[in-house]
Amino acid sequence: MTPEFLRRYYILRIISNPKVYGIEKNGFVPLTDLQNALHQLRVNNIDDPLYDKLSQNGQKTIKRDLEKIKSYYQTIILHKRNYGYFVEETEVTESLKVVYEKTEIYLLHHHAHKWKSYVSTSRNSLSAQVDLVPLIHAIEQQFMVELDYQGWYDDNGFQNVSGFFQPLHLKEINKSWYLIAHNQQYGTYTFCLDDRIKSFKINKQHIKHPILFNAFDYFENAIGILKTGMKPEWIHIKVSNHHFKYILNNPLHHSQHIVAPPLRLDTDELDYSNPDIWGELKIFIEPNYEFLMEILRYNLWVRIESPLHVKNYVKEHLVRILNYYE
User: What is the pLDDT of residue 203?
Assistant: First the structure.
């Protein structure tokens, strides 16, 4: 992240949600209020070079930044004379949500020591052999990586995978980071960046015939990192009312649709035998082991309705778990 990126990020955040920054002007942000908010952010981080460029907030600089924001984030910020700046869209797009989330995660890590009294973060799951920054650079510049990977049983039956790969994408799931990479021998392969990585090296040689990779297309029907080749299908899931709201705000999958909301969304008692507290959602995914683990984490608050073979798949594992306690 560069200081210029951070300035543009905060310009967008301030104009998109001015009340958070103490600006109460009916949704408008006058230039002087924007400059003052940026200045205060700089003062609050006066010893941090990452915030250096927040002081460079003249009208011409702001205008150039707004063009960059329009180009990068597909977000149009307008200006009404005598009122100030405002965002044309009423809802935040999914792509912009990703930018917000990843930038906030980066800033949390960047300020980890300074904010340790106020913020608790989960452990870093990377092994000592891998550094994300040069790896991201290798993906961007299409450099080869050389690695030696000793899989666990759940990966590949303890298979050793080694060689030169084209790095394609990084993904974080459940406190673990994964590298999706490709070569002719293994095709597109997923490596967990933990102690299974025995050696790792970035080769500065450019890949002669790089393949194209689209993360959304690749993971379109996955709930996490697994790609099993199973046929994706619509899974119908009943959700109790108090957890229905949670899953609406934290979707199980991007394909999630509401089939029917609970007839009684708010109840003082959780009577699971009452059909009125149950709503129904559906998601279109591969019903693989990762999906099973996601469903089990919701305990008695969710249940699979259909298809029957997926319902039986979950039931089989629950029966096995129950037998542990007999």
Answer: 82
> Looking at the domain that runs over 3-92, which CATH code has it been given?
1.10.10
The number of helices, as runs of H, and strands, as runs of E, in the chain is: 10, 11
Q: Which of the 8 DSSP states describes residue 231? A: P
Domain boundaries, the chain: 3-92, 132-218, 233-323
Cis peptide preceding 307, ω within 30 of 0: yes
Strand partners, 257: 282
Rg of the chain over Cα atoms, rounded to whole angstroms, equals: 24
- 3-state SS assignment for residue 34: helix
pLDDT interval class at 293 (50, 70, 90): very high
How many Cβ atoms sit within 10 Å of the Cβ of residue 214?
10
Residue 177: strand pairing partners = 172
The residue count of the chain comes to 326
CATH assignment of 132-218, among 2.30.30, 3.40.1350, 1.10.540, 1.20.1300: 2.30.30
Burial readout 36-68 (b: 16 or more C-beta within 10 A, e: otherwise): bbbeebbeebeeeebbbbbbebeeeebeebbee
Could you tell me the CA-to-CA distances from 24 to 15, 20, 77, 94, 258 in Å, in that order? Answer: 11, 9, 18, 26, 35
Determine contact, residues 1/106, Cβ cutoff 8 Å: yes
Write the DSSP string, 305-317.
EE-HHHHHHHHHH
**What are the CA-CA distances from residue 79 to residues 7, 19, 40, 160, 178 (Å)?**
19, 18, 22, 58, 42
Mean per-residue pLDDT, 254-281: 92
